[in-house]
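Hi V.,

You were right to ask for the full record rather than a summary. Here it is.
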Amino acid sequence: MIAPTEDAARGPRGPVALTLLAVVAACVFAGFIALGNWQVRRLAWKTTLIAHVEQRVHAAPVAPPAPNEWAHVTADADEYRHVQLSGVLLNDRQTFVWTATDEGSGFWVMTPLRMADGTIVMINRGYAPTDWCGRDGHCAAGPTDEVTITGLLRMSEPQGFLRHNDPAHDSWYTRDVAAMAAARGLSNVAPYFVDADAAPPHGNQPSWPEGGKTILNFPNNHLSYLITWYLLALMTLVASIYVGYDEYRLRSTKRG
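Predicted structure:
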């Protein structure tokens, strides 16, 4: 006696099972397509953002947003804008933020700059190593005369996920402008800070703080993501067609 084949033993699926499979396949297919379409929009957004940032970084410096514009400053519209501002550095109100760069571990030297109209903008004068600042972060003060600074506008950084700022102990891990201003008793402070450009070299020795350390790196993996989602949608479609054909073949065999 010949044993029935697996297809014959199983037989065609019932209408309820087929309907359920069709609904699940349609939902999965639609979900993958939606995710792929979302990545298409993200790719367009990221490509435009990178182009705008490149344009801002290499443009001639302009005045930073004035107080009446602060409420409308956003990362998409303003971050990495090349700005120029003049004023007096408030060296006694500096904040030293722990960081790690290609130079090693050290501090961002954040110094408030008071402009002629009384507006204060936090200036990231750059990176300084711990052996220059000392273990307690007592970095040397900056210039006392009026200075003109060019640099890139950056948005205030929120609290870190793993390490939190501790203003009471003057321990800082993120460049949170509002928190630094409150800790130093400052008012009329811009909601952004400025990464100072690199200063011209003076001899062979590094000049601390060292500006121009802004990292301009924008991962753009959206093309690979959208290809992945669309391939999964195609695989779902092919699998659905195969199941449909298999059911058709089983029913034809049963009728025969």
